[in-house]
Design goal:
The complex is a heterotetramer, with one copy of chain A, two copies of chain B and one copy of chain C.
Chain A lengths: L3 E6 L6 H10 L3 E6 L10 E4 L19 H11 L3 E5 L1 H8 L6 E3 L7 E9 L15 E8 L3 E3 L2 H9 L3 E5 L10 E5 L5 E4 L17 H12 L1
Parallel strand pairs in A: 1-2, 1-3, 3-4, 4-11
Antiparallel strand pairs in A: 5-8, 6-7, 6-9, 9-10, 10-11
Chain B lengths: L1 E10 L6 H12 L5 E15 L3 H16 L5 E10 L1
Antiparallel strand pairs in B: 1-2, 1-3
Chain C lengths: L1 H7 L4 H11 L5 H10 L2 H4 L4 H4 L9 E3 L6 E4 L4 E9 L1 H6 L1 H17 L4 E11 L5 H21 L3 E8 L8 E11 L14 E6 L12 H4 L6 H6 L8 H16 L5 E4 L4 H12 L3 E5 L12 H6 L5 E6 L4 H10 L4 E8 L3 E6 L4 E7 H5 L15 H6 L11 H7 L5 H4 L10 E3 L6 E6 L6 E12 L1 H6 L1 H18 L3 E10 L6 H21 L3 E7 L3 E2 L2 E2 L3 E10 L16 E5 L10 H5 L12 H16 L5 E4 L4 H13 L3 E3 L5 H5 L6 E5 L1 H13 L4 E7 L3 E4 L3 E4 H17 L6
Parallel strand pairs in C: 4-5, 9-12, 17-18, 24-27
Antiparallel strand pairs in C: 1-2, 2-3, 3-6, 4-6, 7-10, 7-11, 8-10, 9-11, 12-13, 14-15, 15-16, 16-21, 17-21, 19-20, 22-25, 22-26, 23-25, 24-26, 27-28
The chains are: A alpha/beta, B alpha+beta, C alpha+beta.
Bound molecules: adenosine-5'-diphosphate and magnesium ion.
Adenosine-5'-diphosphate binds next to strand 17 and strand 18 of chain C.
């Protein structure tokens, strides 16, 4: 049985269909979850997609975190469910407290859309289990607020517990510790700024996003 | 009673400020000398109905804690004034 | 009293006479305000309409031609594509960020008004020179405005142009093209029908934005403080989040079949939307100003009717469907209010409450169809003869030809990386290619059709300054060749005519010549014009901009299983140029860089051009070339340099004998990189088709050399190219 | 002399503030009642070297006009304080 992945839609989300397309392309089922519904149904994993939930007004994720759907997703995560926040989704996960730190404006104050090279730092997570340490993945970023910021203490904790999953080879946005993606303590909640769903088709220039989303689908199946 | 609230949201000390450093760099390129420590925050103003000033302050404080700031990196200064 | 006011509103005495004739009485202030905005150049095309009629608009696959919010073509598989281009030049000079942002918002609304989901934008931009701090401030603001709005509203930006030149110093050009996709049977038109149907205003509240010239009404004693009048903001602020919800809401309404017609609110606001829907449907409308949700207190009816507040749509719904419409709007947190009712006869009545006082009453059609039509005097410039005699071919030889080439190279990544280029997972070639390429997926099922769309935008003020007619024809020809380079067949053209002051006979001559050049080329290439926009009065301090028609051409790629070749050649590839011998330097980027802006353009051969396009398309579709790039701005020098830089592989070139051969921009030429094993085969195909070929060299090594002309390290060349924009902008920008 | 400058950049009255209205909507959803007219601006703080307070004010004003604001849509309030 292939797992069913729920993809959350807030007003202002825009990468939800792309996530659905990529997930289906890899053989799993995908359904959209409307932000106002507290009922997330029988999903096996959740993606919080990219975009500009609530316009990113005030701060990215600041309004979205209060959605009824988010309450259920926090529950789901606490019960061990696999949750991935991509880009805006990462920002929502930090705002709601499932992941530590915050995402500030890029250094240079410019929106950045371009392919970057990521290095796999840890394979121990729902998103990286099918990669190898040191693998270099070519995946696009697409954000204004991707500059990961946290306290020294948090950074040490992330480092010491192998919770930094992906780093940038050439830091594009000023992120602390070159961080592109991290996970929570139980390793079932992951946030990353790059867009793996944009790197899953030969016509789109890279298929390096596939092992990441495969890992995720696998974990949802478990 | 109606009050005018003004909230200044600032990055906590020690947290890097990409907007501030970008502005600082730009000023020196534009020929402005001697400008340093640029920090950029948000200023949010609104009116609110409240029983009294104390209650107004409490509401705004709660709004800041829950919503207007991200306590991981920001804090806020609140000013409340009565509107006649 | 009206006598004085109509002129401050930009209406002439004759125009006022005409209004009096239509109404059979003097107009009141509200009516006058509505006529003034609807009969403005911007809305009525009064100076250009007579010329636009000469453009060919017909084609079997054209579903909707000019006259609607966007052109629509049939691309097969029951899929239709909507396309439109628009300018936001003047607002962008005053407030670059918001001016450009609201330009993006406006063009996107034109597309989803047709029932299409916006899937891509492109932004041909023109700014003053990079050594002017204010021009850079404008450029920086415009680019971040397009980025800020486009990214957030969720429409990827797949291409455009960024040009810096003296001629735009006081008047930048911000054109934006938008492309939308729809199931053919969902096509809707902006018309009202069915007496008793309701007009529902969707989206943002109405404020005093963009009232512009009309605000003089206030100072003429309309009960408002005179003081307030000039404080009144005419700058509009875009809200991409509102627009994103508006898109989703409107597409859901259309999918559910709940609207009879729908119309975006653009220039002239409610006056335009209400009268346009009514007159297209051959009906009238009672319009209730009091029901319009207002952002500011004390707004006058004329302000409500002429405000250009952003992110609003007017939908026509049957009373039965109103409740469902409200439900869907609520779901998307979109405000909806019933503001009018479709009536019999053709009157647009503006009222205070639908049962209340009638504030103004005009035949809806008269705001459009009776708009004045001017045949303005036109004349070529007086000095045309001496202008044509002063040719760039007579300029002295370059002192340092390598330096001249390097100065023409510029990487646009500084601009394009600020734009989301990939949303919707369609973008096979984004900004930077000869044409952008998108996968064509079925809008209902998401199924890939295995085919592709290709789009390009092109303009060239240098060519058009030398000869607006030939220059414009060359632009169209270049677009068609750009599409051929990605293997696409051209299907339709849209255009934006950016010109100076139409009251100047030379400017009108330029416009008329450009339209003739475009018509001629479109007829030759069998390319219907499906829409466009005209932007006049692009002038500052009495100087008109160089004529700048911009075209957008869309084409279809019959088979898109692998990406088209693009510009990257491989080590060992043989390099050939196909097409005519290069001739002439007047109007070239090289000549302009020397400060030389006169001369004549060489005519090009349509027949040869068509054959070059066909053969290029064939070679690309059959995967017989490793790389392909057409020769355009900067000539063969820039074309080959760009290929070398993108490939990371140098080249040794020969048979480019002079700076004229290197920098000439004559049309119909393409550089091909061919694997040595395919060379004989490719040359045979070309020879059989009677296509002129020159072997110019070999792709190899880490130098860019041209025998007898120059020798550069590829690495240095690449750095110069990459650094051009960043170093200019890092030098600092300021608004004045 | 060193001065502390504080600049509050606000949208002019009548200019739409989409961010402000979105925040306003959110407050009511979060259960905060009676909040209205939310307007969001920027607060920029920095230190600068200047001969005297008047000169400092002049520099900051110029910085605002040329760089920090666009007077077409924004106003700035400047506060300058000497630092001992
Ligand atoms: N240069 C042009 N070529 C062809 N059609 C044009 C041109 N300029 C304007 N049009 C057509 O005229 C119609 C009205 O344009 P406009 O008033 O700008 O529309 P809107 O009200 O949507 O802004 C549109 O259908 C447009 O395509
Ligand atoms: Mg329109």
């Amino acid at each position: 049985m292939s797992p069913t992945i729920g993809v959350v839609v807030f007003p202002g989300s825009n990468c939800e269909q792309d996530a659905v397309e990529a997930i289906r392309g890899l053989g799993a089922e995908a359904v959209l979850l409307w932000h106002e519904s507290a009922e997330i149904g029988e999903v096996d994993g959740v993606i919080i997609p990219g975009g500009f939930a609530h316009g990113d007004y005030l701060r990215p994720g600041a309004i979205a975190r209060f959605s009824p759907a988010m309450e259920s997703i926090v529950d789901f995560a606490e019960r061990g469910g696999s949750v991935v926040g991509i880009c805006n989704g990462f920002q929502v996960l930090t705002e709601v407290g499932l992941l530590p730190g915050a995402l500030q404006k890029n250094i240079g104050l410019k929106f950045l859309c371009k392919p970057v090279n990521l290095q796999v730092e840890s394979t121990n997570s729902i998103l990286t289990s099918q990669t190898k340490p040191g693998d270099i993945l070519n995946i696009p970023i697409n954000h204004f607020e991707g500059n990961y910021t946290c306290s020294e203490e948090t950074l040490n904790e992330l480092r010491n517990n192998d919770r930094i999953l992906l780093t940038y080879k050439n830091n594009p946005n000023g992120s602390m510790g070159d961080i592109a993606g991290i996970c929570n303590e139980s390793r079932n909640v992951v946030g990353l700024m790059p867009h793996p769903e944009r790197a899953c088709h030969h016509l789109l220039g890279s298929t390096d996003g596939e092992p990441l989303l495969q890992s995720f689908i696998e974990s949802a199946n478990a | 009673m109606r009050y005018q609230a003004s909230v200044e949201v600032r990055l906590r000390e020690g947290i890097a400020d990409p907007q501030g450093s970008t502005i600082e760099n730009a000023t020196s390129k534009l020929g402005f000398e001697g400008i340093s420590n640029v920090r950029v925050g948000k200023s949010i103003r609104f009116t609110l109905e409240s029983a009294n000033e104390k209650a107004a302050h409490k509401t705004v404080q709660e709004l800041c804690d829950r919503f207007l700031t991200n306590p991981v990196i920001e804090d806020a200064t609140i000013i409340i004034q009565g509107i006649e | 009293m009206t006598e004085k006011i109509h002129r401050t509103l930009g209406l002439t005495d004759e125009e006022l006479e005409k209004i009096i004739e239509i109404l059979g009485r003097e107009p009141n202030h509200l009516e006058l305000a509505m006529y003034s905005v609807m009969w403005s150049e911007h809305c009525s095309y009064k100076s250009s309409r007579i010329h636009l009629k000469r453009l060919p608009v017909e084609g079997d696959h054209v579903l909707v031609g000019p006259g609607e919010n966007a052109g629509v073509i049939d691309v097969g598989d029951d899929i239709a594509i909507a396309i439109r281009i628009e300018s936001h030049n003047h607002p962008s000079y005053i407030e670059p960020y918001q001016g450009a942002a609201t330009g993006v918002g406006g063009i996107i609304r034109d597309i989803f008004t047709m029932g299409a989901r916006p899937i891509a934008i492109m932004d041909p931009l023109r700014f003053g020179p990079l050594d002017d701090a204010r021009s850079k401030w404008v450029a920086e603001g415009v680019i971040s405005g397009i980025s800020g709005y486009g990214n957030s509203v969720g429409v990827p930006n797949i291409g455009g142009e960024t040009v810096f030149d003296q001629t735009y110093i006081g008047n930048p050009l911000v054109n934006v093209l938008c492309l939308g996709i729809l199931p053919k049977d969902r096509l809707v038109l902006g018309q009202a029908s069915g007496v008793g149907n309701l007009a529902v205003l969707l989206g943002a509240t109405t404020g005093r934005d963009g009232i512009g010239g009309v605000s003089v009404l206030a100072s003429a004693g309309f009960g408002d403080d005179e003081e307030d009048a000039d404080k009144r903001p005419s700058v509009q602020v875009g809200d991409p989040f509102e627009e994103k919800r508006l898109i989703e809401c409107c597409l859901e309404l259309l999918d559910a079949g709940l609207v009879v017609g729908i119309q975006d609110l653009g220039g002239a606001g409610l006056s335009c939307a209400a009268s346009e829907t009514a007159s297209r449907g051959g009906v009238g409308m009672d319009f209730d100003v009091a029901a319009v949700p207002q952002r500011e207190k004390g707004m006058q009816p004329y302000e409500i009717m002429t405000s250009e507040s952003q992110e609003r749509m007017l939908a026509i719904v049957t009373p039965d469907n109103l409740e469902l419409v409200t439900q869907i709007s609520n779901k998307w947190e979109i405000r909806s209010s019933v503001v009018g009712k479709v009536t019999q006869g053709g009157l647009l009545r503006i009222m205070e409450g639908l049962e209340g006082e009638v504030l103004g009453e005009v035949p809806a059609v008269s705001l459009h169809e009776d708009a004045p039509l001017y045949e303005r005097p036109l004349a070529p410039p007086d000095d045309l003869e001496s202008f044509q005699l002063d040719q760039a071919e007579q300029l002295p030889n370059p002192e340092d030809i390598a330096e001249d080439l390097l100065n023409l190279l510029s990487d646009l990544e500084w601009v394009t990386s600020q734009y989301d280029q990939q949303l919707f997972l369609n973008t096979v070639i984004g900004p930077g290619g000869d044409a952008a390429v998108l996968r064509l997926k079925n809008p209902s099922t998401g199924q890939d059709t295995g085919r592709g769309l290709a789009v390009t935008t092109d303009g060239n003020h240098r060519w058009c300054a030398i000869n607006p007619r030939t220059g414009t024809a060359m632009i169209v020809a270049e677009s068609v060749l750009n599409l051929a380079c990605v293997g696409a067949e051209p299907k339709a053209l849209v255009n934006c005519l950016n010109f100076g002051n139409p009251e100047n006979p030379t400017v009108m001559w330029q416009l008329s010549e450009a339209v003739d050049g475009m018509s001629e080329a479109c007829r030759e290439f069998d390319l219907p014009v499906v829409g466009g926009n005209v932007s006049l009065y692009n002038e500052s301090q009495g100087t008109n901009i160089d004529p700048t028609p911009i075209v957008g051409v869309i084409g279809v790629i019959p088979n898109l299983e692998t990406p088209p070749p693009g510009m990257k050649w491989a080590e060992g590839d043989r390099l050939i140029v196909i097409g005519p011998e290069p001739e002439g330097l007047s109007g070239s980027a090289w000549a302009f860089a020397q400060g030389h802006r006169k001369g004549v353009l060489r005519e090009f051969d349509y027949d040869l051009h068509k054959r070059i396009c066909a053969i290029t398309r064939e070679l690309v579709q059959n995967k017989l070339v490793t790389a392909v790039h057409d020769v355009s701005v900067g000539g063969l020098g820039v074309a080959t340099a760009e290929m070398a830089i993108t490939s990371g592989i140098g080249c040794s070139l020969a048979r480019i004998s002079s700076h004229e051969a290197l920098f000439s921009e004559s049309s119909s030429r393409v550089v091909l990189a061919v694997n040595p094993e395919e060379l004989i085969n490719v040359e045979e195909i070309l020879t059989n088709a009677d296509i002129p070929i020159v072997r110019i060299g070999l792709a190899n090594g880490d130098r860019y050399t041209i025998k007898g002309l120059l020798d550069l390290e590829l690495h240095d060349m690449k750095n110069k190219w990459a650094d051009h924009l960043p170093s200019a902008f890092e030098g600092g920008t300021t608004q004045g």
